[in-house]
Amino acid sequence: MKSWKKMMVxxxxxxxxxxxxxxxxxxxxxxxxxxxxxxxFQNGPWKMAGNLYFPKNIExxxxxxxxxxxxxxxxxxxxxxxLYAKKLAEQGFITLAYDASHQGDxxxxxxxxxxxxxxxxxxxxxxxxLTTLPQVDVEKIGVVGICAGGGFAVSAAQTEHRIKAVATAxxxxxxxxxxxxxxxxxxxxxxxxxxxxxxxxxxxxxxxAEPMYTQYVPExxxxxxxTERDMKEASDYYRTPRGQHPNAKxxxxxxxxxxxxxxxxxxxxxxxxxQPVLFVVGTEAxxxxxxxxxxxxxxxxxEMFLVEGATHMDLYDIxxxxxxxxxxxxxxxxxxxxx
Length: 339
Hints:
There is one protein chain. By secondary structure, the chain is of the alpha/beta class. The protein is built from eleven helices and eleven strands. Helix 4 (148-159) links the parallel strand 6 and strand 7. The termini are far apart. Mean pLDDT is 89; it is low at 6-33.
Protein backbone atom coordinates (compact mmCIF):
# COMPACT_ATOMS: atom_id res chain seq x y z
CA MET A 1 0.00 0.00 0.00
CA LYS A 2 1.39 3.42 -0.92
CA SER A 3 2.29 5.51 2.12
CA TRP A 4 -0.26 8.24 1.37
CA LYS A 5 -2.97 5.58 1.17
CA LYS A 6 -1.76 4.06 4.42
CA MET A 7 -1.89 7.49 6.06
CA MET A 8 -5.48 7.99 4.97
CA VAL A 9 -6.55 4.57 6.18
CA UNK A 10 -5.01 5.23 9.59
CA UNK A 11 -6.21 8.78 10.08
CA UNK A 12 -9.20 9.41 7.84
CA UNK A 13 -11.17 6.22 7.89
CA UNK A 14 -11.72 6.26 11.62
CA UNK A 15 -12.64 9.93 11.51
CA UNK A 16 -15.38 9.03 9.04
CA UNK A 17 -14.84 12.22 7.06
CA UNK A 18 -17.14 10.97 4.40
CA UNK A 19 -17.45 12.47 0.95
CA UNK A 20 -20.96 13.21 -0.32
CA UNK A 21 -22.49 14.34 -3.51
CA UNK A 22 -25.59 15.08 -5.46
CA UNK A 23 -26.47 18.48 -6.88
CA UNK A 24 -29.27 20.35 -5.19
CA UNK A 25 -32.60 19.94 -6.94
CA UNK A 26 -34.76 23.01 -7.42
CA UNK A 27 -37.76 23.29 -5.13
CA UNK A 28 -40.86 25.19 -6.09
CA UNK A 29 -41.55 25.90 -2.43
CA UNK A 30 -39.99 25.18 0.92
CA UNK A 31 -41.62 22.33 2.81
CA UNK A 32 -42.64 22.19 6.43
CA UNK A 33 -43.15 18.85 8.18
CA UNK A 34 -43.65 18.34 11.91
CA UNK A 35 -41.77 21.46 12.97
CA UNK A 36 -39.06 21.08 10.30
CA UNK A 37 -38.69 23.50 7.41
CA UNK A 38 -36.47 22.88 4.39
CA UNK A 39 -34.60 26.14 3.76
CA UNK A 40 -31.98 27.61 1.47
CA PHE A 41 -29.52 30.40 2.19
CA GLN A 42 -26.70 32.02 0.29
CA ASN A 43 -22.99 31.42 0.85
CA GLY A 44 -21.15 33.56 -1.69
CA PRO A 45 -22.00 32.06 -5.09
CA TRP A 46 -23.43 28.87 -3.62
CA LYS A 47 -26.95 28.15 -2.46
CA MET A 48 -26.89 26.17 0.77
CA ALA A 49 -29.51 23.60 1.75
CA GLY A 50 -30.62 23.15 5.35
CA ASN A 51 -33.35 21.96 7.66
CA LEU A 52 -34.69 24.42 10.22
CA TYR A 53 -36.20 22.89 13.37
CA PHE A 54 -38.61 24.69 15.68
CA PRO A 55 -39.58 24.12 19.31
CA LYS A 56 -43.00 22.65 19.88
CA ASN A 57 -45.78 25.20 20.37
CA ILE A 58 -43.60 28.08 19.23
CA GLU A 59 -45.06 31.41 20.33
CA UNK A 60 -45.80 34.07 17.75
CA UNK A 61 -43.75 37.21 18.29
CA UNK A 62 -41.31 35.57 20.70
CA UNK A 63 -37.60 35.45 19.91
CA UNK A 64 -35.74 32.23 20.66
CA UNK A 65 -32.09 31.26 21.09
CA UNK A 66 -30.80 29.43 18.02
CA UNK A 67 -28.19 26.71 17.48
CA UNK A 68 -26.39 25.67 14.30
CA UNK A 69 -25.38 22.01 14.11
CA UNK A 70 -22.34 21.12 11.99
CA UNK A 71 -22.02 17.63 10.53
CA UNK A 72 -18.85 15.51 10.41
CA UNK A 73 -16.58 16.04 7.43
CA UNK A 74 -18.51 15.10 4.33
CA UNK A 75 -21.60 14.02 6.26
CA UNK A 76 -25.08 15.28 5.50
CA UNK A 77 -27.79 17.07 7.44
CA UNK A 78 -30.00 13.99 7.55
CA UNK A 79 -27.47 12.15 9.69
CA UNK A 80 -26.11 12.96 13.16
CA UNK A 81 -26.22 16.76 12.88
CA UNK A 82 -29.92 16.54 12.06
CA LEU A 83 -30.50 14.29 15.04
CA TYR A 84 -28.86 16.79 17.39
CA ALA A 85 -30.79 19.64 15.76
CA LYS A 86 -34.09 17.84 16.28
CA LYS A 87 -33.36 16.95 19.89
CA LEU A 88 -32.13 20.44 20.79
CA ALA A 89 -35.26 21.93 19.21
CA GLU A 90 -37.23 19.76 21.60
CA GLN A 91 -35.32 21.53 24.38
CA GLY A 92 -36.58 24.97 23.28
CA PHE A 93 -34.08 26.13 20.65
CA ILE A 94 -34.53 27.00 17.00
CA THR A 95 -31.92 24.85 15.26
CA LEU A 96 -30.38 24.66 11.81
CA ALA A 97 -28.70 21.61 10.29
CA TYR A 98 -27.28 22.13 6.80
CA ASP A 99 -25.19 20.41 4.15
CA ALA A 100 -21.65 21.73 3.73
CA SER A 101 -20.86 23.46 0.47
CA HIS A 102 -19.82 20.99 -2.26
CA GLN A 103 -21.72 18.25 -0.45
CA GLY A 104 -25.22 16.85 -0.02
CA ASP A 105 -27.99 19.10 -1.34
CA UNK A 106 -25.90 22.28 -1.12
CA UNK A 107 -24.31 23.75 -4.22
CA UNK A 108 -20.58 24.01 -4.79
CA UNK A 109 -18.16 22.85 -7.44
CA UNK A 110 -16.21 20.66 -7.62
CA UNK A 111 -18.32 18.04 -5.92
CA UNK A 112 -16.97 15.89 -3.09
CA UNK A 113 -14.55 18.63 -2.01
CA UNK A 114 -13.60 18.86 1.69
CA UNK A 115 -12.13 22.33 2.16
CA UNK A 116 -11.78 23.36 5.85
CA UNK A 117 -11.64 27.09 5.07
CA UNK A 118 -14.91 26.86 3.17
CA UNK A 119 -16.42 24.71 5.93
CA UNK A 120 -15.75 27.54 8.39
CA UNK A 121 -17.29 30.02 5.95
CA UNK A 122 -20.36 27.77 5.75
CA UNK A 123 -20.88 28.37 9.47
CA UNK A 124 -20.57 32.14 9.07
CA UNK A 125 -23.18 32.02 6.31
CA UNK A 126 -25.47 29.98 8.54
CA UNK A 127 -25.14 32.69 11.19
CA UNK A 128 -25.94 35.30 8.53
CA UNK A 129 -29.09 33.38 7.68
CA LEU A 130 -30.25 33.02 11.29
CA THR A 131 -29.95 36.78 11.82
CA THR A 132 -32.59 37.31 9.12
CA LEU A 133 -35.23 35.23 10.92
CA PRO A 134 -37.73 37.18 13.02
CA GLN A 135 -38.05 34.28 15.49
CA VAL A 136 -34.33 34.28 16.33
CA ASP A 137 -32.70 36.34 19.06
CA VAL A 138 -29.55 37.41 17.24
CA GLU A 139 -27.69 37.87 20.52
CA LYS A 140 -28.31 34.23 21.43
CA ILE A 141 -26.76 32.11 18.68
CA GLY A 142 -24.75 28.98 19.50
CA VAL A 143 -23.11 26.21 17.52
CA VAL A 144 -22.73 22.45 17.99
CA GLY A 145 -20.21 20.45 15.96
CA ILE A 146 -19.80 16.69 15.72
CA CYS A 147 -16.46 15.02 14.87
CA ALA A 148 -14.71 17.26 12.31
CA GLY A 149 -17.72 19.55 12.60
CA GLY A 150 -16.62 20.15 16.18
CA GLY A 151 -13.25 21.40 14.98
CA PHE A 152 -14.91 23.59 12.37
CA ALA A 153 -17.31 24.99 14.99
CA VAL A 154 -14.47 25.96 17.34
CA SER A 155 -12.45 27.39 14.46
CA ALA A 156 -15.38 29.53 13.31
CA ALA A 157 -16.15 30.81 16.80
CA GLN A 158 -12.58 32.05 17.23
CA THR A 159 -13.28 34.86 14.77
CA GLU A 160 -17.09 34.79 14.43
CA HIS A 161 -18.22 36.45 17.65
CA ARG A 162 -21.86 36.51 16.72
CA ILE A 163 -21.58 32.95 17.99
CA LYS A 164 -22.03 33.25 21.76
CA ALA A 165 -21.42 29.65 22.89
CA VAL A 166 -19.89 26.48 21.42
CA ALA A 167 -20.42 22.78 22.14
CA THR A 168 -18.85 19.74 20.51
CA ALA A 169 -19.46 16.00 20.47
CA UNK A 170 -16.53 13.67 19.66
CA UNK A 171 -14.62 16.70 18.40
CA UNK A 172 -11.60 16.38 16.15
CA UNK A 173 -9.46 18.86 14.27
CA UNK A 174 -9.42 17.45 10.77
CA UNK A 175 -5.99 18.97 10.14
CA UNK A 176 -4.45 17.37 13.21
CA UNK A 177 -6.09 14.07 12.28
CA UNK A 178 -4.52 14.13 8.82
CA UNK A 179 -1.13 15.16 10.16
CA UNK A 180 -0.90 12.97 13.25
CA UNK A 181 -3.33 10.15 12.56
CA UNK A 182 -6.41 9.06 14.46
CA UNK A 183 -4.30 7.95 17.40
CA UNK A 184 -1.74 10.74 17.17
CA UNK A 185 0.99 8.52 15.73
CA UNK A 186 1.26 9.83 12.18
CA UNK A 187 4.63 11.00 10.83
CA UNK A 188 5.90 13.94 8.80
CA UNK A 189 7.05 11.43 6.19
CA UNK A 190 3.43 10.32 5.75
CA UNK A 191 2.38 13.94 5.25
CA UNK A 192 5.09 14.62 2.69
CA UNK A 193 4.23 11.48 0.74
CA UNK A 194 0.61 12.57 0.61
CA UNK A 195 1.56 16.06 -0.56
CA UNK A 196 3.80 14.63 -3.27
CA UNK A 197 0.97 12.41 -4.49
CA UNK A 198 -1.39 15.39 -4.54
CA UNK A 199 1.14 17.44 -6.53
CA UNK A 200 1.34 14.72 -9.20
CA UNK A 201 -2.42 14.40 -9.33
CA UNK A 202 -2.99 18.15 -9.71
CA UNK A 203 -0.50 18.25 -12.58
CA UNK A 204 -2.24 15.30 -14.20
CA UNK A 205 -5.66 16.91 -13.88
CA UNK A 206 -4.35 20.22 -15.22
CA UNK A 207 -3.28 18.28 -18.29
CA UNK A 208 -6.61 16.59 -18.86
CA ALA A 209 -6.72 13.64 -16.46
CA GLU A 210 -9.95 12.76 -14.69
CA PRO A 211 -10.33 13.86 -11.04
CA MET A 212 -9.19 11.31 -8.49
CA TYR A 213 -11.46 10.24 -5.66
CA THR A 214 -10.89 8.06 -2.64
CA GLN A 215 -13.02 6.63 0.16
CA TYR A 216 -12.92 7.44 3.83
CA VAL A 217 -14.44 4.46 5.57
CA PRO A 218 -14.05 0.78 4.78
CA GLU A 219 -16.96 -0.89 3.05
CA UNK A 220 -18.58 -3.69 5.00
CA UNK A 221 -16.90 -6.34 2.85
CA UNK A 222 -13.50 -4.82 3.67
CA UNK A 223 -13.81 -5.29 7.44
CA UNK A 224 -11.46 -7.91 8.86
CA UNK A 225 -10.52 -9.15 12.31
CA UNK A 226 -7.59 -6.70 12.24
CA THR A 227 -9.71 -3.63 11.48
CA GLU A 228 -9.56 -1.11 14.32
CA ARG A 229 -12.71 -0.68 16.40
CA ASP A 230 -13.22 2.94 15.39
CA MET A 231 -12.95 1.99 11.72
CA LYS A 232 -15.47 -0.81 12.16
CA GLU A 233 -17.88 1.57 13.89
CA ALA A 234 -17.40 4.23 11.19
CA SER A 235 -18.29 1.68 8.52
CA ASP A 236 -21.24 0.44 10.56
CA TYR A 237 -22.66 3.96 10.87
CA TYR A 238 -22.05 5.24 7.34
CA ARG A 239 -22.27 2.10 5.24
CA THR A 240 -25.25 0.24 6.73
CA PRO A 241 -28.89 1.25 7.26
CA ARG A 242 -27.91 2.43 10.75
CA GLY A 243 -26.86 5.86 9.42
CA GLN A 244 -26.49 5.49 5.67
CA HIS A 245 -27.93 8.19 3.42
CA PRO A 246 -28.04 8.38 -0.40
CA ASN A 247 -26.12 11.67 -0.39
CA ALA A 248 -23.25 10.16 1.60
CA LYS A 249 -21.38 8.16 -1.02
CA UNK A 250 -18.08 7.44 0.79
CA UNK A 251 -16.30 9.47 -1.88
CA UNK A 252 -13.99 12.47 -1.52
CA UNK A 253 -11.86 14.47 -3.94
CA UNK A 254 -8.22 13.47 -3.36
CA UNK A 255 -6.93 16.98 -4.02
CA UNK A 256 -8.83 18.17 -0.95
CA UNK A 257 -6.11 16.83 1.29
CA UNK A 258 -3.46 19.54 0.78
CA UNK A 259 -5.97 22.04 2.16
CA UNK A 260 -6.79 19.75 5.05
CA UNK A 261 -3.14 19.20 5.96
CA UNK A 262 -2.64 22.97 6.24
CA UNK A 263 -5.61 23.49 8.56
CA UNK A 264 -5.48 23.91 12.35
CA UNK A 265 -8.89 24.19 13.98
CA UNK A 266 -7.59 25.19 17.40
CA UNK A 267 -4.83 27.60 16.35
CA UNK A 268 -6.30 30.64 18.13
CA UNK A 269 -8.32 28.87 20.80
CA UNK A 270 -6.27 30.35 23.64
CA UNK A 271 -6.55 33.97 22.45
CA UNK A 272 -9.52 34.60 20.16
CA UNK A 273 -12.03 32.10 21.55
CA UNK A 274 -13.62 34.16 24.30
CA GLN A 275 -16.99 32.39 24.26
CA PRO A 276 -17.86 29.57 26.67
CA VAL A 277 -17.13 26.13 25.25
CA LEU A 278 -18.30 22.62 26.12
CA PHE A 279 -16.53 19.45 24.99
CA VAL A 280 -18.63 16.26 25.14
CA VAL A 281 -16.67 13.07 24.55
CA GLY A 282 -17.02 9.36 25.27
CA THR A 283 -14.61 7.80 27.72
CA GLU A 284 -13.86 5.06 25.17
CA ALA A 285 -13.50 7.33 22.13
CA UNK A 286 -10.31 6.93 20.15
CA UNK A 287 -10.55 10.67 19.50
CA UNK A 288 -10.81 11.60 23.18
CA UNK A 289 -7.27 13.01 23.19
CA UNK A 290 -8.29 15.74 20.74
CA UNK A 291 -11.10 17.07 22.96
CA UNK A 292 -8.72 16.97 25.90
CA UNK A 293 -6.08 18.83 23.88
CA UNK A 294 -8.56 21.55 22.91
CA UNK A 295 -9.86 21.79 26.47
CA UNK A 296 -6.35 22.29 27.84
CA UNK A 297 -5.59 25.03 25.29
CA UNK A 298 -8.86 26.93 25.78
CA UNK A 299 -8.78 29.90 28.17
CA UNK A 300 -12.43 30.97 27.95
CA UNK A 301 -15.04 29.50 30.34
CA UNK A 302 -14.86 25.79 29.53
CA GLU A 303 -16.36 22.44 30.47
CA MET A 304 -15.50 18.83 29.69
CA PHE A 305 -18.33 16.30 29.92
CA LEU A 306 -17.38 12.63 29.74
CA VAL A 307 -20.02 10.14 28.61
CA GLU A 308 -19.13 6.94 30.43
CA GLY A 309 -18.61 3.93 28.17
CA ALA A 310 -19.27 5.78 24.91
CA THR A 311 -17.04 5.47 21.86
CA HIS A 312 -16.57 8.13 19.18
CA MET A 313 -19.43 6.87 16.99
CA ASP A 314 -21.76 6.16 19.93
CA LEU A 315 -22.31 9.92 20.21
CA TYR A 316 -23.64 9.98 16.65
CA ASP A 317 -26.88 8.11 17.21
CA ILE A 318 -26.96 5.64 20.11
CA UNK A 319 -29.86 6.90 22.30
CA UNK A 320 -28.38 6.17 25.73
CA UNK A 321 -25.31 8.26 24.87
CA UNK A 322 -26.79 10.92 22.58
CA UNK A 323 -29.50 11.70 25.15
CA UNK A 324 -26.86 12.37 27.81
CA UNK A 325 -25.01 14.66 25.42
CA UNK A 326 -28.17 16.57 24.47
CA UNK A 327 -29.27 17.09 28.07
CA UNK A 328 -25.83 18.45 28.94
CA UNK A 329 -25.76 20.68 25.86
CA UNK A 330 -29.25 22.00 26.53
CA UNK A 331 -28.31 22.93 30.10
CA UNK A 332 -25.11 24.53 28.82
CA UNK A 333 -26.84 26.62 26.15
CA UNK A 334 -29.73 27.62 28.45
CA UNK A 335 -27.13 28.80 30.93
CA UNK A 336 -24.98 30.67 28.40
CA UNK A 337 -27.63 31.91 25.96
CA UNK A 338 -30.75 32.10 28.12
CA UNK A 339 -34.23 30.97 27.19
